[in-house]
Amino acid sequence: MKTELSKIAQDLEKGKITEREAATLLLGLFSVTKRFSLVELENVLRKPKLALISTDLKNILIEGNGYHYDSEEDIAFIEKYAGKKVLVYEWCGDWWICEDDNYPLFKKCFELLD
């Protein structure tokens, strides 16, 4: 990942790619581009907000949709983000962590800091 980030930064600096292309490539590293068109990506990129994810993330998610979040992937997600400051964005009524768009969040899952 570090190599890919560095290459994108170098290409942008040398003018080989535009800022929009760089943004798309960066989001592609986190599989975000699969969800959005280029126009939608521009809107998402303009709207990230800093948030503090609740330390009670698992229980809030369970309460919100009834799923138990017991798989290894679920546990890793919760351990990675619970109690942490991250960038989030809103899309079509759902909230998402910018670097990991596999789990939609409820507004109760976080507190906006900016």
Detailed description of the structure:
The chain is of the alpha+beta class. It is 45% helix and 22% strand. It has helices at residues 2-13, 19-29, 38-46, 57-65, 72-81, and strands at 49-53, 85-91, 94-97, 100-105, 110-112. Strands 4-3-2-1-5 form a five-stranded antiparallel beta sheet, with no helix packed on it. Strand 3 and strand 4 (100-105) form a beta hairpin. Helix 1 packs antiparallel against helix 2 (19-29). The longest helix is centred in the N-terminal third of the chain and has 12 residues, at 2-13. It is elongated, with a radius of gyration of 16 Å. The two termini are 28 Å apart.
Question: Descriptors for this entry?
Answer:
about 110 residues; alpha+beta; 5 helices; elongated
Could you give the distance between the termini?
28 Å
Strand content: 15-25%
Q: What is the β-strand count?
A: 5
Question: Topology as H/E string?
Answer: HHHEHHEEEE
Helix content bin: 40-55%
So how many helices? Answer: 5
Note the overall shape.
elongated
Q: How do the strands of the widest beta sheet line up side by side? A: 4-3-2-1-5
Radius of gyration, in Å, reads 16 Å
Whole-number mean pLDDT: 84
| Unreliable runs | none
- The structural class is alpha+beta
From the structure provided, what is the oligomeric state, counting identical versus distinct chains? Answer: single chain
Largest sheet: 5 strands, antiparallel
Q: What is the structure about, briefly put?
A:
With 114 residues, the chain is of the alpha+beta class. It is built from 5 helices and 5 strands, in the order αααβααββββ.
